Amino acid sequence: MEVTGQSKAPPTEDVVVFSILNPSTCSECRAELSKGDFLRMEKEKPLCLDCADLGHLVYLPRGDTALTRRSRKYSALSAVVVRFSRSRRRYERQGVLVEPAALDRAEKECLSDEERRRAARARAALDRERADMQYVAQFAEQIRSRYPGCPPREAGEIARHACEKYSGRVGRSARAKLFDAPAIELAVQAHVRHRHTEYDRLLAQGCDRSEARAAVARPVAKVMERWSKA
């Protein structure tokens, strides 16, 4: 019997409960289970939560890490709820099942120290922001070191653009974070191509990207050569 298009649960030491994608039937009480209902597999047999002796547990959706951690800590019995993602072809955690008293205790603890945890999150965010600003400044310094003719204002602009968080640009790559010379060159080259040539105009006119790059290769090289000199 397949639970969600896959017959095997994800590897884990936890008790696993499935949020099913397809209707099923409990093998013991014959209760009908609809899409989204919870089901426990035991010896290849589907069981509803009551027949699996998990019916007394309450569901806590994922999202609050502290509440989940504390609830599981105080619950003598808990289970991980998973659902199979057809697009990603894997099981993904949806939440946990815990004892009501454990959830109640965890909620009270979380409420009592919410201010402290909020302050800690704010401090952590500020630390990350400062570290990111430092990284951008160091990246700009590396640009100026390798291209001393690059105007300081443009070096800063290149660094901020290349290193923008979550952008996927070259400045966020592992190589760039080691200040790898080719990665820095790529960032400078991209800036020169967009700011000092007709590259964008060619793209706007429908020119193929590779052809547009070839058309501006010489002016890009001239600027790069000029900037490489003090």
N-to-C span: 72 Å
Number of helices: 8
Coarse shape? elongated
Rg over C-alpha atoms, rounded to the nearest angstrom = 28 Å
Write the element-wise H/E pattern from the N-terminal end onward. EEEEEEHEEHHHHHHH
Helix-strand makeup class: alpha+beta
- Largest pleated sheet: 6 strands, mixed
**What's the count of strands?**
8
Across the major sheet, the strand order is 5-4-1-7-8-6
Poorly predicted regions are none
**What's the rounded overall pLDDT mean?**
87
Share in β-strands: 15-25%
Number of domains: 2
Helix content: 40-55%
Q: What does the model show?
A:
It is a single chain. The protein is an alpha+beta fold and 230 residues long. It folds into two domains: 16-112, no CATH class; 115-227, no CATH class. It is 48% helix and 16% strand. It has eight helices and eight strands; from the N terminus they run E-E-E-E-E-E-H-E-E-H-H-H-H-H-H-H. The protein has helices spanning 65-74, 100-112, 114-146, 152-162, 174-177, 181-195, 199-204, 209-227, and strands at 16-19, 24-25, 32-33, 38-42, 45-47, 58-61, 79-85, 90-98. The protein has a six-stranded mixed sheet. A hairpin with a 2-residue loop joins strand 4 (38-42) and strand 5 (45-47). Helix 1 (65-74) packs across helix 2 (100-112), helix 3 (114-146) crosses helix 4 (152-162) and helix 3 (114-146) crosses helix 6 (181-195). The mean pLDDT is 87.
